[in-house]
Amino acid sequence: MRKQPKPDNFSGAHPPRWADRLLEWFVAPHLLEYVQGDLQELFYKRVEQVGPARARREYVWGVIHCLTPFFQKPLRREIAQPFSDYPQPAQTVMLRNYLKIAFRNLAKNKGYSFINISGLAMGMAVTMLIGLWIYDEISFNQYHKNYKDIAQVRRVYTDPNIQKTFGTEAMQFPMRAALKSQYHHYFKHILMAWWVSDYTVSMADKKIQKRGEFIDPGVLDMLSLKMLKGNYASLDQLHSIVLSKSAAQAIFGEEDPINKNLKIDNRIDVVVTGVYEDIPRNNRFGDVEFFSPWDLWVASNGWIKEVENEWGNSSFGIYVQLLPHVSIETANAGIKDFYLKSTPKETAEQSAKYKFGVFLYPMKDWHLYSELKDGRPSGGRITFVWIFGLVGFFVLVLACINFMNLSTARSEKRAKEIGIRKAIGSLKNQLVQQFLSESFLVVILSFALSLLLISIALPWFNQVADKALSLPVESLLFWAISLAFIAITTFLAGAYPAFYLSAFQPVKVLKGTIRLGRFAALPRKILVVVQFTVSIILIVGTIVVYKQIKYAQDRPVGYNREGLISVPKNDPNYVGKLDVLRSELLNTGVVAGVELSSSPLTAVWNNVGGFKWKGKNPELASDFSITEVSYGFGQLVNWQLIAGRDFSRAFATDSTKMIINETAAKYLGLKNPVGEFVTFYDGKQTRQIIGVVKDLVMTSPYEPEKRAFFFLDANYKSASQIDIKIKPTVSANAALPEIEAVFKKIVPSAAFNYKFVDEEYAKKFSDEDRISKLASFFATLAIFISCLGLFGLASFVAEQRTKEIGVRKVLGASVLNLWGLLSKDFVLLVIIALGIAIPTSRYFLTGWLEKYTYRTEISWWIFAASGAGALLITLLTVSFQSIKAALINPVKSLRSE
Amino acid sequence: MKKTILGELEELVLLVVAASSEDVYGVPVMEQLQVLTGRSFTVSAVHTTLYRLEEKGFLSSSVGGATAERGGRRKRLFALTAAGGRVLLDIQQMRQQLWQSIPIGKLELLGL
Predict the structure, then answer these.
(1) DSSP notation for A293-343
(2) What SUPFAM superfamilies has UniProt attached to this entry (chain B) (predicted)?
């Protein structure tokens, strides 16, 4: 940076005004002049030495240090005078008195205190849990020091035929070189990478499944990993591997891993050259357990070497780190037209036709904005951050409303105290202080209780939310935030009662003529309505989310996943042994069938475009998902043929045939698809359709299944999964060891890592499952907190009307009459709440459901059920008190006085 | 007689005031301390100590000239009193005694 010539009198630099004000307000006048003078003198010196910004910070720091009792004390110089009029500052005396009264009040009304404190504690616990969750979400990927500068290169393109824009993170191999030669002025690192996936890492006989990433060596520096052994140059050798600490421990135990040999997938030799501290889970690379050089991956995969200069193959990831002074906008603007400017002529022409654009997908958005629309990030988890943030806030508000309601409801009981205080000279301001300090006490107690609740609930919450949260008790920031949280809650809960109570007129109160008019209870009623509105919305939401999940789970999947397991075929030694493997497995007697497929049943790995068929509309997109399967696959998974036949060894030419799914059949628009031909993109190869099966749900259970082709893969050339069906009569626990034994015998080098297909399928629901569990948790709590408040309020009303009830009973009212009298008011409030909650929840949930193509209806019974539920709970809560009141012997209630 | 105990910072500040040829105020004391100890002190710490020493009778103070860089504010200037000088001598004497009572060769044995 250039040095700025300094102005002579630093007219620009002044100490912060607010700090000066603070100092002037706090420090005793006889000390102020000297200390402020010193501070300012120092300030101007420091401006010269370290610049205005830092000097200002130091000034504030200095002022803050002056906020000690020493500087506040009245004239110390006249200390010779032994007694002052006020031996202690009057303030603490009053404050202590307030707290004493508050404690007595709490102890006297144990029931109310319990409701107040436990309700508030629960509300605070929920809010803090949500706060922790939100913090975790927001701090995603921030473990890496340079997270602001790291980005992934993405491409958007528009299909001119259908005018639809798509996006991809898969790039071409030569792009790295082009970026490096022509755009290096933006980037510190340009790293080519394969996709994070599972590999078998082996040492002698020990085989362990580990997630790893093959990426250019700069990754260690880019991600600012903490190297426990080795350094940022550790990946520079071709055959190197850098392990996470836990992976190193899993493989080597306590031994020093450095310079030990390992084998990846039993074919790539590597030497351990470094160990890094595990990346925390809330990071994109948090599940990566090793890094190995990209060049090694290229050297080990012939096909990648072949496409080294090929612009037609997009299969690789590119991560970049910007230079410190380059903003993401600048870089984006610079590389936007990469394809037009920096690729060979043909590619550039093709790119222009498809409107290729390149942009950087910044790391800070990877998690919160993970959903892409038209190839660009548009939303994602950020929605949940908002939703849960709102829910947390509302739960806290519910709890605070309880507090307000109970405090104001009991106001008549405390009216005398307020009257007397005012009569002996309390100012309104002091009474406000008193009530605020009372609520402060309650909030502090609740806070302590909520910390306890959180520590109990955290393990469960972590499991449900799939997080590793903990209370950061050693972090100063946490306590600072907690303090602010306590202050906010105190004010939220205490402000209204404080101002309400302190406004009583002493004369009226003491004369006993205070009549809280017809509208005195109105705010209280409004608060109850708000409480129940929120609760009912949460109930309806929970039911709808649950129903949506259930709906998708019950969707027919088109195959039978019972007892199906899949084993990845990721070892070169499988080649040529698959038929032996099958017959050996069948010989064990626990297996019903063994077949192979190119992708697991719960995913589609291959999409191919460019197909043509008879009568195809040229505007129509021509891509289909392709799965290659072995002969008996259909029978193994029990797919359901609608037309035609399955692949069969009886027909020698089946390798040029295919089976399509129902969606594809509709899409092709052929009257009778069986027997028709489909031409490949090269215009030469064709395949004949021999059968149509019902849709197999392989991708999202919420979306209509994509049009799919199934090809026969008779000699397992593209097989990647070994699909095994365990006999229904045999339990999986019994079958697995036998299956493993066969694998070990035939292909000893391969790791036996199986996955149950139904479990993999269930994982597709994990997000929704999580929301449903969390939502029901919050709804339950909200209802509970609301009920606590209602309970307190009802008991108060019953108590207040004891005399009235006594008189009514004497005059002949029945218990039922009285019960109705006392419950009616509350039921009315809940009905009003229902009237507000139903349209609101309907509006929001319709919006949520619209995200899913395959969705459930919001039927009337949901509202009916939640309405009835809310009414029932209200009645139960209120009835307990009202029946109790109605049953009291009138002699007792009328005898007093 | 009540025994007067001086804290470390108090002793240092007293020594700094004693060592200066003229009356001093907060900022030079603070800078001197920083130079000597290498630690940083806040204005408030220095002031508190100065006033405390004055209260104990080891320093006396007067009001001094204002300068522009202080925004026209006056300084409080401190000077050592006889009692202050005495307490410094007491401390030095006590230290000297302790030093002399260290057995000969003990520090050398520790390699110092």
Answers:
(1) EHHHHHHH-HHHHHTTT-TT-EEEEEEEEE-TT--HHHHHHHHTTHHHHHS
(2) Winged helix' DNA-binding domain
Entry field: residues in chain A: 897
Kindly report the nearest CA distance between residue A13 and chain B, in angstroms.
12
pLDDT in tens, A174-201: 999 999 998 988 999 999 998 888 888 8
Phi, psi of A519 (to 5 degrees): -95, 0
B-chain CB neighbours of A36 within 8 Å are 71, 73
Runs of H (alpha helix) within A343-470: 345-354, 381-409, 411-423, 428-465
- Length of chain B equals 112
Residue showing tokens 């082709």: A709
**Every domain of chain B and the residues it spans:** 8-109
Q: For residue A260, which phi and psi values (nearest 5 degrees)? A: -85, 150
B-chain CB neighbours of A76 within 8 Å are 51, 55
Q: How far apart are CA A370 and CA A363, in angstroms?
A: 10
Closest residue in A to B62 (Cα) is: A34
Which run of H or E residues covers position A210?
strand A206-215
Domain ranges of chain A: 1-85, 150-366, 383-550+766-895, 564-758
Distance CA A383, CA A403 (A): 30
Task: Using alpha carbons, select from A781, A877, A884, A883 the residue that is nearest to residue A826.
Answer: A877
Tell me the three state secondary structure of residue A751.
coil
Name the token pair of A367. Answer: 């998690």
Q: How large is the C-alpha radius of gyration of chain A? A: 36
Question: Which token pair is A653?
Answer: 């030419």
- CATH number for the region B8-109 comes to 1.10.10.10
Distance of CA A630 to the CA centre of its chain: 40
Two tokens, residue B23: 């009356």
A residues 29-88 near B, CB within 8 Å?
A: 31, 33-42, 44-45, 61-62, 65-66, 68, 70-71, 76, 79
Angle at A492 between CA A488 and CA A493, to 5 degrees: 120
Report the percentage of chain A scoring pLDDT > 90: 14
**Rounded distance between C-alpha atoms, residue A665 and residue A673, angstroms:** 6
pLDDT digits (tens, 9 = 90+) for A110-150: 888 888 888 889 888 988 888 888 888 888 888 888 888 99
Tokens of A613: 């068929």
CB A854 within 8 A of CB A701: yes
